[in-house]
Amino acid sequence: MGRSSKTRSPSYRTDTKTQASLLAHADDHATAIKSTLDSVQRLLLEKMSPLHTEHNRMIPLHQLPIEIFVQMIARALEPFWTFRWDRSTYLARLARLCQVCKHWKDVIDDTPSLWTVIHVLDPAVVTSTAISRSAGHPLYIIAAPPGPPDNVPDGLDELINTAIPCSTRWRSLQVAVTSSEEALAILNAPAPLLQTLELKSKTQIWLGSQKGEAAFQGTNPQLRRLSLYGVAIPWDSSLLRGLQHLSISELIGLAPSCKEILGILGACPGLVELELSLKNAGAVGGPKRATPFTLTELRSLSINLKPSWILALLETIHSPSVESVSLDLNFYYSDSSDLLPKMAQHIQGLFPVVFKSQHKLLITISQSTFLFWESRETTGGSREFKISARNMPVGAAERYLVQTLLHRFPANSIELYFEGTPYSHLWAILQEFD
Known about the structure:
With 434 residues, the chain is an alpha/beta fold. 35% of the residues lie in helices and 21% in strands. The strands form two sheets. It has a 13-stranded mixed β-sheet with strand order 1-2-3-4-5-6-7-9-11-14-13-12-15, with helices on one face. Strands 8-10 form a two-stranded parallel sheet. A hairpin with a 3-residue loop joins strand 12 and strand 13. It is elongated, with a radius of gyration of 34 Å.
């Protein structure tokens, strides 16, 4: 049998060529149409751009003087200076504002003062761009978490290495350090404009200076705010003079003595806010009688020290303008619980005018050896008083406080909270309020 073969007719080949030609022709037309549409769209955008520009120019906000517009942007971003551990940093928000329109972008790009807040969570390229655009303006550097520095942020070493060459522009420096060498590199950099310094360390660090050496190369920065967390410096340092805000916390063997604390406070007559949290500090030169002095501007006082030290401070410092007081007393150590009656009497002198407005009293009792007492304004004011007594019989602590404070600041309402096992002497406590 012969082999069969298939042959295509001439008409079939002609149809195939025709279809291919039509498809190619259609592609050409599609390309031409797309090109035409692109041209039309480009021309339309070119025509619309001046209209958009004119429309944006007519917006009342854009008719403000540039200086006022810049102040509005700066004020709107100001809260993000304190939202310190959020990926939406100050510079991230500023970059978003640049996307609103060309006018905003031009204004922000041409205003160096808007590029001065540097955050460790910003990418390195953003940090470099901001430092370049800030054009010599004072820098505000944020590289410390708001709480304990348990987790050192990524990029911290890189940021410090970038920031130190710009030390003469530092206005505010908040940084978590990982070693004494890193902290000393900061203190040995010239910083004549520095007003706020916050140093945090997970482990205790002592930053003693060599004989004849001065902090910041003797450039004498006028510090107004100093915060030391786990970091100790010579307690007679010039950095501890003339402060308005002072915080010292989480130091044990390196903590200042009670006498040194009083010396520091005496060198800061304009102090507005004081926080001392040295609850485990040893008896470093125990409390001694000192000449009383007045801190006229002091508004906020938060102390967590040995009770005998707190009593020494209350006996020495007169603060007629204080609005917020928090005292944490732990009688676990060698201090006698007999100090509480004396302390309660001195507490009365802290508040000559604080609780004229309405307030409520909150008392929290946990087990039988912890009492937390809080007087808080009910009108939304900022005035408040907190005291906690640990490791002493609740009944005794509550009786002293009621006898010395409740009649001085009569509460509009009293709330009692019990945590853990119900307190067996509840009735005795309630009788104190009769």
